[in-house]
Amino acid sequence: MAKTDQQFLEDRLGMTETSGWIDLVTDLKELEENIVNLNNITSEKDLWVIKGQLRIINYIVSLENATHLALEELQDGNPT
After folding, report:
1. What is the DSSP string of 22-62?
2. Which of 78, 79, 70 is nearest to 8 (CA)?
3. Rounded distance between C-alpha atoms, residue 66 and residue 43, angstroms
4. Which of 3, 20, 33, 37 could lock 7 by a disulfide, CB 3.0 to 4.6 Å apart?
5. How far apart, in whole angstroms, are the C-alpha atoms of residue 25 and residue 16?
6. 39-78: buried (b, 16+ CB within 10 Å) or exposed (e) per residue?
7. What is the number of alpha carbons within 13 Å of residue 80 lying toward its C-beta?
8. pLDDT, tens digit, for every residue of 26-42?
9. Which DSSP state fits 43?
């Protein structure tokens, strides 16, 4: 049986509460701080690589908050 949107979002939130997820997000935030060092950019190619890395990091770091918002919107659209 396919998951409902609400179950999918609740499962995702459960994932973000695990110690492994919290460790991953902490590591990614530290990595992000190191990546944005302008001294690491020596060419246009480096700039594009760093931009891609930052987009992925931002997506993962903001996943919990985005999931909370999506779940709230879903629940607001479905009166109980």
Report:
1. HHHHHHHHHHHHHHT-GGG--SHHHHHHHHHHHHHHHHHHT
2. 70
3. 33
4. 3
5. 9
6. eebeeeeeeeebeeeeeebeeeeebbeebeebbeeeeeee
7. 3
8. 999 999 988 877 777 88
9. S
Residue 80, pLDDT > 60, answer no
Q: What are the C-alpha distances in Å from 33 to residues 4, 38, 54?
A: 37, 11, 10
Convert the pLDDT of each residue in 48-61 to its tens digit: 999 999 999 999 99
pLDDT of residue 10: 95
How many CB atoms neighbour CB 25 within 10 A?
17
3-state SS, residue 37: coil
The pLDDT confidence band at residue 76, using thresholds 50, 70 and 90, is confident
- For residue 9, the tally of other CB atoms under 10 A from its CB is 21
Neighbour-count burial of 38, counting CB atoms closer than 10 A to its CB (0-12 exposed, 13-18 middle, 19+ buried): exposed
